[in-house]
Amino acid sequence: MSDPTRTAGLVYGLAVIDTAATQNALRTLREQPEPADVITAVVIGCIDQSDSTRIHFRNAAHTAAAYAVTLALENAPLDRWLPRLLDHSMGMDATLDAALYRVGHAGAWGSHAAAVKHIGSATLNEQVALALYHLIRYPDDYTAAVTAAQSTTHTTTLLTSALSAARLGIEAIPPEWIAALPDRATLDALIADLNPNSEG
Q1: CB-side exposure of 117: number of CA atoms within 13 Å?
Q2: How many Cβ atoms from other residues are within 10 Å of residue 27's Cβ?
Q3: For the residues of the chain, what is the DSSP string, one character each?
Q4: How many Å is the maximal CA-CA distance in the chain?
Q5: Contact at 8 Å (CB) between 109 and 140?
Q6: What pLDDT score was predicted for residue 200?
Q7: What residues have CB less than 8 Å from 22, skipping those under 6 apart?
Q8: Is-contact 68 131, C-beta < 8 A?
């Protein structure tokens, strides 16, 4: 099981961007045999992190997003994320493979705008890849990663926030962002459900 502060980071990282969708995904999680959206896929990645063989869905982007969560929660070295994501999802969808390869091309570029244009943002596959790009570009700065992602798409921002906060822990999220969330008790209860063995 991961560090509870990483799990809390994941949930709050989702919630600070889209509270209602996060709460809905967490409530309906066990009713869905296949994730209906990327938020649910991300949470399934948290639940199934100890068995990555279970993180294979019909939708390649959902698979990549869920597997990225396992990498964040296990604190895998960021320079290994791209190869591991490619290995885990290779061949599921050629457009996802291509988007992930474009992250490798653009990862060290100085221009954020040029990198975003190169990776693309029109499809869910590209949005997952863009979230990975923002983590690589701002590896230790949650706020910078999320702020940069906000110039792209809502889904990219959501994934960037969740993955960065899961990787860095809940402490990385600005306290004022967390304080502004409604119904934190519900989020905390859901986090406790995701960490049944943690003390708190």
Answers
A1: 6
A2: 11
A3: ---HHHHHHHHHHHHTT-HHHHHHHHHHGGG-SS-SSHHHHHHHHHHTTT-GGG---SSHHHHHHHHHHHHHHTT--GGGHHHHHHHHHTTS-HHHHHHHHHHHHHTT-S-HHHHHHHH--SSHHHHHHHHHHHHHHSTT-HHHHHHHHTTS-HHHHHHHHHHHHHHH-GGGS-HHHHHT-S-HHHHHHHHHHH-TT---
A4: 45
A5: no
A6: 44
A7: 11, 14, 15, 39, 187
A8: yes
Which tokens sit at 56? 């294979």
147-174: pLDDT as tens digits: 999 999 999 999 999 999 999 999 999 9
Q: What is the pLDDT of residues 76-117, one digit of tens each?
A: 999 999 999 999 888 899 999 999 999 999 988 889 999 999
| Alpha carbon of residue 80 to chain centroid | 16
135 in Cβ contact with 167 (< 8 Å): yes
